[in-house]
Amino acid sequence: MSPRGGAARPAAYGLALVTGALAAREAGVVPATIRKWVQLGHLSPADQRGRTHLYRLEDVFAAERTARGRRRSARD
């Protein structure tokens, strides 16, 4: 636990770079969804190693929240 009473997070939590496949697994979506979020401008790669795009988990989760909010709005 952190001093503020919340769950402890690794110091590099927001700085960790992951592949699209791992980003998809962490967000509970398929890799094609990560590519779609990039195409729609919800997510941008933080870096690239060869042909592999790398993403910050923090950015992936923010894109997920944005996408879920838009789906709810579309249903209303």
UniProtKB/TrEMBL annotation:
Residues 23-60 form the HTH merR-type domain. It comes from the Bacteria. InterPro entries: DNA-bd_dom_put_sf (IPR009061), MerR-type_HTH_dom (IPR000551). It holds the Pfam family MerR_1. This is MerR family transcriptional regulator.
